[in-house]
Structure formats: structure tokens, C-alpha cells
Amino acid sequence: MYIPKAFKETDREKLINFIEQNSFGVLFSQINDAPFATHLPFVVEQDCLVSHFAKANPHWQLLDGQQVLVVFHGPHAYISPTWYKEENTVPTWNYTAVHVIGKVKIVKDIERLQEILEKTTHFNEQFEPNPWKGNFDVKAINGMMNGIVGVEVLIETIEGKWKMNQHHPVQRQQNAIEGLMQSPQIYAKQVANLMKKNIENF
Questions:
Q1: Which InterPro entries match (predicted)?
Q2: What CATH number should be reported for the domain holding residue 36?
């Protein structure tokens, strides 16, 4: 990922937290010399990302031992130059993203696969007032397990990009924040809050 120095985020804890908050990622690789991508819910497990594929998805079949790219997107929004209230300014897009490069291990072991599913469910249910628990009998569980395969991505490199207008003067950033707070874009207020945090930490 192209990351100018002003936008580079290297704090590993912050990057891991970002993945946990934006855990639905995209796994990219090559299949038969062509790019292929699968959207997956990931859970961070120490230095590893874990998830699972539908067995019918051909993507996993050639992945074992391969190096892949997993992309996680955060809030993003269009920035209008009119918000800056200055001449000779141009439009841009503010966004956050984390890229992980790692080596894949395909998981077919039933016990490990069940562990991955339990961790994924617990991670996503933990803030529910009445967390769902899959109380299935052994036959039902085995039937479902036959339809999926697990995936572990050992993290080799992790990089983050926080493009939040931090290379602009503070007043211009604050003007953009005001514009975002009035914008109908779906993630505009989230981007505005991230920009505020950047200014506070500057």
C-alpha cells in the first residue's frame, strides 16, 4: 500500500484494535494466474488472523502455504474543497485502512475448526444483551462442519494508513471537520471524529 510518511500508522496495538473494530476483511490471492478475493469475518488470535470459508468456494483449495493480502477498511469520506474556505484547494478522500500480508494454513481438523467458529461467534456476540449460543447436537454440528474449512493467516507484515488531512494547517482541518459534521455521507461523522482525535494528539 502506498503510504506517505504523514499518513503512516505503525503502532501495532492500534492496528490490531482497528482490525477488531473493522473485522470484516477481504482476502486477496491469485487463482490460476488471476486475482481472486473473498470477503470474510476475521478474529485476531495473537499473531494470526482466523476465519472460515464455505467449502463450495474454490478460493481456499489452492491457498495452503500461499502468501495472501488481507485488507480491512475503516471509515472514509469525500472532502470538498469548499469546506476549507480557501482558494487553490482541491477535493480529496479521507480514509483509514490496514493491510496484512501473511502465509495461509488451511484448517480441516474438526476440533480446531469448531474452536475458530466459537471464537468468531463469541467475538461478535459479546456485546449483545443475550448472546446467542449454538446449542446443536453432534450430528447437526458435524453436518455444518462438512460445509466449511478454516483458515489461519500468520501475520508477516501489518501496515496502516490514516489519511486524515493531517498534512494541512490545523484551521483547514477544523473547517473540513465542520463540513463533515454536516455531510450526509454515511461515514462522515466517524471521519470527523478521527480527525478531531488527530488534532488533539498533535
A1: Split_barrel_FMN-bd, TR_PAI2-type
A2: 2.30.110.10
